Amino acid sequence: MKPEGSVKTVIILEIILPIALLVFGIYHGVLQVLYRAGIIRDVSFLGIEYYQGLTLHGVINAIVFTTFLIVAFGNIMFWYLLKKPLRASVQWVSFALMLIGTSMAAWAMFTGKANVLYTFYPPLLAHWTFYLGAALLIIGSIIPLFFDWLPNYVAWKRENPDKKVPIGVYGIFVNHIMWVIMIVPVVIEILFQLLPLSLGIVEEINPSLARTLFWAFGHPVVYFWLLPAYAMLYQILPKLVSEKGALFSDGAARLAFILFLIFSFPVGLHHQFTEPGITNSYKLIHALFTFGVAIPSFLTAFSVAASLEYSIKAQYPHLRDSLFAWWTKIPYVSTQGDKWVVSYYMAGLFMFLIGGITGIINASYNLNLVVHNTAWVPAHFHTTVGGLVTLVFLGMSLFFLARLTGKEVKLKGLAVLAPWLWLIGFAIFNVAYSLAGVEGMPRRTNMGLSYSNPDSPIFAMDWMPEAIAGAIGGTVAGIGFVFFLVSFVATLLSPKTKEETLEFPVALAYHDEKMPALQKLTPWVVFSCILFLVSYIPPIYDVAKRGVFFDSPGYNDKSPIPVTKPQSAKEQGENKEVSIK
Amino acid sequence: MLGELEKSEKAALSIAVGFLLFFFGLLVYAAKGMNIDVPTCITDVKPFTEGRIIQHSPDRYEVHYLAYMWAFDPMEIELPRGATVDFYLTSKDVIHGVHIEKTNVNMMAIPGTVAYARYTFTKPGEYRVICHEYCGIGHQDMMAKIIVK
C-alpha cells in the first residue's frame, strides 16, 4: 500500500522532529548522572543550568518525544490496518499545533524561564509560554482522534459489522480515548491555576490542589506512553520473530486494554502517599486500584511470552516439546530483513520486567515511605518509560521511517547493538540508583555541588560508589543512543532505493476469542469516567476545603521572595486566614 | 466472557490477582496492625511560621520543622537514644520534602498544610534530614541533621 498525499510528509515529520529533540533530551540525561557523581561540580555546564537541563530532559523525553511518536504510530496503524486514507487538513492542523506548542515551551526552557521540571509543581512558577505550549501540544495531539481516527473507525465498523477491528487499531484507539480523559485535570490545572498565576491575573493558588490535579493526569499518562508499545507488541512482534508468528490470544490482549481503560485513572494518589492534606483511606483505595492496573501488565507479560513461544515453535517444529530451548531461537541480534527491530522489543521487555516489579513496590502504600523521592524512583522509570517504551518507540520510528521514505535501514549492526547497550547501561544505573535510593539519596538534586562534592560540608561519602556506578550506566546507555542515532541519520540521508510503503508485518491471532462485550467501547469508557470522577471527589474535597489552610503566591527558582505578591501582604493574609480557621 | 480464554491464560490471570491481593493484605496489616502508616492531614495543627523543639517528657519530643528556600528550621536537633518524636512539617514558600534517612519518616512540605509523622530513634548516630523535592537553585544544599546520642 503506497502512502498517497501530504499525510505521509506529516507522519515523517512527526518521526524526525521528536528524534531530533531527543538528542537534547538524552544529552541532558547523561549530564545528570555526571553532575550527580560529582564529575561536574557546578551550577551549570556549557551555559545550561543543572535544573534547566533536568527540565529539558524530562519534558522532551517524557512529554514531547512520546506524544509526537504516539500520534505518528497511531496514524500509521489506522491508515494501514483499516485501509482508509487520513485527511491531510486534519493532520497538518494537528502537527502545526503540536509544533507551535513545543516551540513555545522550548523557548521558555532554553532561555531559563521555566526551571520547574516536567512536573511543574506550583508555587514554583514558569513563564506562561511554557504552560500554554504544553496545552497546545496536548490539544494538537487529540485532533487526529476526533477528526480522523474516530470517523474512520465508525465507517469501518459500518462496512464490516461482523468483524473486530485489528488489535493494533483497538489498542491505539482505546489509548487515545484514555488520553482525552486524562488530560482534563491537567488542562484544568493549567487554565485555572498556572496560566492565571503566571500572567498575574490571580496572586495566589492552592498548590495541593495543583499537585492532585497534576497526578490525576501524571500517572495515567504513563499508560498513554505504554499502550502504543503494547499495541505494536501484539500486532507486529510475533510476525517479526518468525514468518509463522501469531498472537497467542486476541481476547486476552483486548481484555488487557479494557482493564487499562478502567484502572488507569483512580490511581494518581499513589504519587502523593507522603503528602499532607489528603485522608489516608483514599490513598489506600488508590493503592488498591494501582495493584489492579498491574493485572493487565501481568496479562500482557503472559500473552507476549506465549505469542513468542507459539511463533518460534510454529517455525521450528523440533522444538515443540522444549521448555527453554525455544528461547534461543528468538532473533535477539539479527540483521536479517526486519529482524533487527526485534532487538528493541526484546531488550525493552527485559527492562520492563524489572520496571513492573519496582513499580509495584512504589505503589505499595507504606512501603513507599522508604523510596519516595529517592534515587529509587528514576531507577524505576528508566526501565519502564525509559526502557520498553523508549526502545520500542526508537526501533519503530526507524522501522517506519525507512518504509515511508523508501529507504533501506543503514548500519543495521549499530541499530541492533543500540538497545542492548541501552539495556546494559540502564541495568547498571538501575541497580546503583535503587540501592542508593534505599540508602536515602534524593532524586532531582544537583549533587555535584553538595553530596558528591568532597569540598562541601554535607559531602556524602557513602553514596559515592552508587553515584559513580550510575554515571557509568547512564553513559553506556547514552552511547547506545548514539549508535541508534548514527543508523537513523544514515538511513535518512541515504538515497531512495524502493517504493514508499505503509506496509508492516501483521500477526493474526492463534486463539481468536469472540468476547462481544469487549467490542463495544462506549459502556467501558462511561464506566471508566465515572470511576475516575468518584475516586477523585473525596481527595479533591480534602485539598480544596479540609486539609489546606491558605493559598500561596508564585515563586521563581532563584529567590525566596514571591514574584506574584509582596512578602508583607502575604504574611498579613496568612494570619487572617489562620485566625478564621 | 472470561470463560472464553485459554486454560493457561485463566491460570496466569488468577495467579496474578491472587498474588496482588496477598501483597495488598500484607500492606493493610502493616498499616493498621503495625501502625506503619503514611502522613495524613493534621487539621488541629495550623501551619506555623517558625521551627520548634518541645520536650514533653525525658523521651517524648515534638519537633516543628519549617522548610524554606533553602534550609530547615531547626537545622540541628540532639535527641537521647530511645526518644519518640512527633514531627510536624510545613513550608514557608514552595514545595519541599523531608526524608530522614534510615527511617520511615518521609513527607512532603506543602505551604498551607501540615504533615505529621512519629518515629522512635532506637539507634544512636547522625541522621541526615534531606530535602528531596526540587525547590529552586539552592535545593542541593538543603539538609538538616538529627544527632541521637
Draw up the topology in text:
The complex is a heterodimer of chains A (581) and B (149).
Chain A: H1 7-36, E1 44-45, E2 48-49, H2 50-82, H3 88-110, H4 128-159, H5 167-199, H6 207-218, H7 220-235, H8 237-241, E3 246-249, H9 250-263, H10 280-315, H11 342-363, H12 368-371, H13 376-381, H14 384-405, H15 412-438, H16 464-493, E4 508-511, H17 522-546, H18 567-580
Parallel strand pairs in A: 3-4
Antiparallel strand pairs in A: 1-2
Chain B: H1 7-33, E1 52-57, E2 60-68, E3 71-73, E4 76-79, E5 84-91, E6 96-100, E7 106-109, E8 115-120, E9 125-130, E10 143-148
Parallel strand pairs in B: 2-5, 4-10
Antiparallel strand pairs in B: 1-2, 2-3, 5-8, 6-7, 6-9, 9-10
Shape of chain A: globular
**End-to-end gap of chain B:** 63 Å
Largest sheet of chain A: 2 strands, antiparallel
Largest sheet of chain B: 5 strands, mixed
Which segments of chain A are poorly predicted (pLDDT under 50) over 5 or more consecutive residues?
A: 572-581
Task: Describe it.
The complex is a heterodimer of chains A (581) and B (149). With 581 residues, chain A is mainly alpha-helical. Chain A contains 18 helices and 4 strands. A two-stranded antiparallel sheet of chain A has the order 1-2. In chain A, helix 9 runs parallel beside helix 17 (522-546). The longest helix of chain A is centred in the middle third of the chain and has 36 residues, at 280-315. Chain A starts with 6 loop residues before the first helix and ends with a helix. With 149 residues, chain B is of the alpha+beta class. Chain B has one helix spanning 7-33; strands at residues 52-57, 60-68, 71-73, 76-79, 84-91, 96-100, 106-109, 115-120, 125-130, 143-148. In chain B, the strands form 2 sheets. In chain B, strands 1, 2, 3, 5 and 8 form a 5-stranded mixed β-sheet that branches. In chain B, strands 4-10-9-6-7 form a 5-stranded mixed β-sheet, with no helix packed on it. In chain B, a hairpin with a 2-residue loop joins strand 2 and strand 3 (71-73). The radius of gyration of chain B is 20 Å and the shape is elongated. The mean pLDDT of chain B is 91. Chains A and B meet through helix 6, helix 9, helix 10, helix 12 and helix 18 of A and helix 1 and strand 7 of B.
